[in-house]
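#struct-help
A.M.: can someone run this one for me? Single chain, 193 residues.
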Amino acid sequence: MLLDSGRDCPRCEDRQVDRRAQRHAVVAAVDAAMPGASEAERRTAAERQLHETVTARTWAKAREWEQYRARKAAAAQARSEAAAAQPAPGVPAVPVAPVVLPAPRPAAVVPAPEAETADVDGAQELVLEDLTREQVRDWRVKAMKDHQVVFDHIDRYGETSARRLFSNQLVDQAQRLSGTRHLVLGHTTWGQA
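D.P.: on it. Structure tokens below:
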């Protein structure tokens, strides 16, 4: 019985149902195996078979718990060995070679996005690795305003470079909208619309 509600315990009820089902299965098996035996002989055989089944199940459960405790003890032992292998705090570990960082590369002078798009056949090449965060942001803002910037970049440097500079989403959007005639009120006069 549950103390807080006074109702029957559902787990105990489940166990009782399981035991009854197990008893009925054993009795049915004994009845099928001993059709000509008396009621007392069948009852004795059923009790013996039920006892053997319950004992085997109990031993199997005990073995599982033993294995569980052994695994848990082995894990605790491994943790304690690992903790013992750790150096004490304040004790220097094996000396580590100093890390030498390469000298920073000088920033390349990259023209502003407006100058770059205006000078399409100029000698200055756009190197993505040399762009600063602000320059990349400026390129992306310009591409969001005018998708032709994306197409010009694809024509000059290839689609992979455009996807790295502008983002996959922006390139896909520009390509998707390129085939449609949509109304951009910021760039279209009323006479052309």
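A.M.: thanks! DSSP finds seven helices and no strands in the chain.
D.P.: also worth noting: Residues 113-178 form one domain.
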